[in-house]
Amino acid sequence: MSDKKAIVFDIQRFSVHDGPGIRTTVFIKGCPLNCLWCHNPESKERHPEIMLTESKCIGCGSCVSICPQGAHTFNEGNKHIVKRENCIFCGKCEAECVGAISMCGKEMTAEEVLETVIRDKSFYENSGGGMTVSGGEPLFSPDFTYELLRAAKDAKLNTAIETSGFAKWDKIERILPYVDLFLFDYKETNPEKHKEYTGVSNELILANLEKLNAAGAKVVLRCPIIPGYNDRDDHFRAIGALADRLDCISRVDVEPYHPLGRSKCDGLGIDYPLGTLSFPEKETVAAWVKTIGSYTSKQVIKS
Ligand code: SF4
Ligand code: SF4
Questions:
Q1: pTM of the model
Q2: CB-based burial label for 148 (10 Å; 0-12, 13-18, 19+)
């Protein structure tokens, strides 16, 4: 295995939402999209980041005295200020703190990640599970993702990748032999709205989905539905039409909006673009699933 590295911000064991069976999901930092509703804002930047949970801060000042970069200060109103631009990711403040500071992201090789993933091999075998690579956008770290998937396949693990599909085709083509399932996001049908909501056009994404279909890949289409943004009938119809047209799509997963990114944005010191938008009602989500299901012969579920 090569020593290609990526910044990994979580390795979630015993996951049951990221593909079949019991899985370990590897979250890689770095994403070329900027979705308004992103629930993992700590995944956007490639580099490690400091997350501060102000409610847990007891004001002891240890971070202020330990930081070699002067990144932690308290202003006159006793508000904790983090100058993130000063941070060199040494981790000293996290080590001193009672739990208000956490470092998001750690540089790892594919080999190191696989060492953790392989520990639960017996659970994967008994449940039909395996490893899922997620992010961020795993294809934004293409060499690392390729190495990790290839190594997982060498170890005879079932593999899945959660992707926005926004990557050059050669990056996707290269991993094809090592991926059992693509969990492929479909966020918005209208190209202008797609750009407005995610920062990029959906042209490349759709072209890649067509190519995956031609290559005989297995795809679950994952559709985040955000009230007031893409909960429109024309989008629902397009999801159904796409699922029916492409043989590679075995199922459509409706992913209802949840505002969990908000507190993470607070911790990272960045604005949350969707303000106070809250969880959709259960009945609303059920209606989305039913409506999309009425436009396709493929299975549609709430994920
Ligand atoms: S070390 Fe932790 S608890 Fe102490 S002031 Fe810094 S953030 Fe707050
Ligand atoms: S990680 Fe190191 S440089 Fe960054 S804020 Fe903490 S102590 Fe300072």
A1: 0.94
A2: buried
